[in-house]
Amino acid sequence: MGTNILAPGGVPDTARIDSLAVDIAALKSRGIMPILVSSGAIGFGVRALGLETRPHKVEMKQACAAIGQPELMRRWQSALGRGGLTAAQILLSREVFDDRKSFLNLKNAMESILELGVVPVINENDSVCTTEIGDVFGDNDSLSAHVASKLEAGLLIILTDIDALYDKDPRTHPEARPIRIVEKVSKEHYVSAGEPGSELGTGGMATKLHAAEIAARAGCRTVIADGREPGTLIRILDGEETGTLFLAGPRMGARSRWILSARSRGSIRVDEGAMAALGERKSLLARGIVGVDGAFEAGEVVSIGGDYKAVTSMSSEEIRAVQGRHGRSVKDVLGEGRREEVVSADDIVKEDSYGKTHQTR
After folding, report:
1. CA–CA separation, 62 vs 85, rounded Å?
2. Which residue pairs from 73-77 have beta carbons closer than 8 angstroms and sit at least 24 positions apart in sequence?
3. CA 110, CA 113: separation in Å to the nearest integer?
C-alpha cells in the first residue's frame, strides 16, 4: 500500500485506512493470512513537521520516518482493532534479506505471528538505515515482493493510485489502454511505465513491474490495482477483473531466490572460457578468474561477470591469491584440503536483463 493511497498529498486518509482494514478483516474471515506492507511513514512525518515537500537529504528523510512511523502504526492498530484484529509492527532493513541466517530468523518469527492470527504490518526501517533511503529497498513495492517471495505467498496485491498497467503512460496519453493480464514482464512494459508521480512516495509503475518479476520467480502472482476504490481487495479475491494480473513464473528454489535477491558484496571478473563453463552449468574454478573487485568473506554473495550471482567459497583475499592458478597450485597457496573450486555450480544463479532468472543447475 503506497503513500499515495494512505496519505495522498501528505495528508493521512483515515477513512481509506479504515476501509482497507475492513477488507483485511474480511480476508481473515475467509481463512486468508494477510501480510501488510505499508508505506506512509515519511509522508506522515512530512505532514507532522509541516513541510511542503518530501525532503531530499537522508537525515531529514530519517527524521520524518522516525516521526511518522509511530503515527502510521497507531492508525493501523486502531483501524484493524475495530475489526477484532491485532496488528504487529515489523520494521525491516535490507541487511535482513542479505544475511541468510537473519532472514531465516525473520521467516520463523513471521510464521509464528501468522499462526497467532495477528496481522503483520511491515515497513522499511527508514529511520536507522545508513544507506541512502532511495537506495536500500528503494520503495515498498520491492520490499513487498521480497516478503512475498521469501514467505512463499500465493498472491501479491500492490495498491496504488492508478487502476492498471497501461500500454502507454495514461497521464500523458489519453488514448492509453489498460493491460489486464501480463504473462511475463518485458522491456516494452518498462518503456510504457512512465516516471514516478509523487513527491511523497518513491515508487512508480517501473518499481511495481520489478516487484511483479521478483514475485513471479517465487511462483507468486501479482495484481496491481487502484487502492482508492473501496472493496478492491475483495473484488480481486472474488476473481473480478480488477487492475492488472501478472502471472506467476516457475518457482525457483528458496536458496536460489535468496542468492538472487541479496546484494552483491563484490564482483569476480572471469575469462571467456569461464563464462562459457558457467553457461554449461559448471562450477567456477580459480584458473578462469582474471580479477576481483571489493572485499568479501567466504559465504557471501558476489556478482560473476555481470551475468551471474553466487555464494563464494573463498574470501576476496583468497581469490586474489589463487586467481589464474590450476589444480595443485591452489593447494600450494591455500593449504591442503582446499579445492580449486571457487564457487559451486549449485550456488550460481543466472540473472537476465528484465528479471528472468534461473539456477544453473
Report:
1. 29
2. 73/121, 75/12, 75/14, 75/17, 76/17, 76/21, 76/36, 76/38, 76/121
3. 5
Beta bridge partners of residue 120, listed in sequence order: 88
Could you read off the pLDDT tens digit of each residue along the chain, which spans 361 residues?
988 888 887 677 889 999 999 999 999 999 999 999 998 888 888 888 888 887 888 888 889 889 999 999 999 999 999 999 999 999 988 878 777 788 888 889 999 999 999 999 999 886 665 554 444 555 788 899 989 988 889 999 999 988 999 988 777 888 989 999 999 998 888 887 765 554 444 458 888 998 999 999 889 999 999 999 899 999 999 999 999 999 998 888 888 888 888 889 999 999 999 999 999 999 999 999 999 999 999 999 999 998 999 999 999 999 999 999 987 788 888 887 787 899 999 999 998 644 444 344 3
Report how far residue 65's alpha carbon sits from residue 71's, in angstroms, rounded to the nearest whole number. 10
The domains found in the chain, sorted by start residue, are 3-256 (3.40.1160.10), 264-359 (2.30.130.10)
- Distance separating alpha carbons of residues 282 and 203, to the nearest angstrom: 38
Q: Are 345 and 283 in contact (CB under 8 A)?
A: yes
Are the beta carbons of 268 and 312 closer than 8 angstroms? yes
Q: Where are the alpha helices (DSSP H) in 7-49?
A: 14-29, 41-49
Interatomic CA distance for residues 172 and 186, integer angstroms: 21
- 299 strand-pairing partners: none
Q: Exposed (0-12), middle (13-18) or buried (19+): which is 346, by Cβ within 10 Å?
A: middle
Phi, psi of 28 (to 5 degrees): -60, -40
What pTM was computed for the model? 0.80
Grid cell in block for residue 13: 486518509
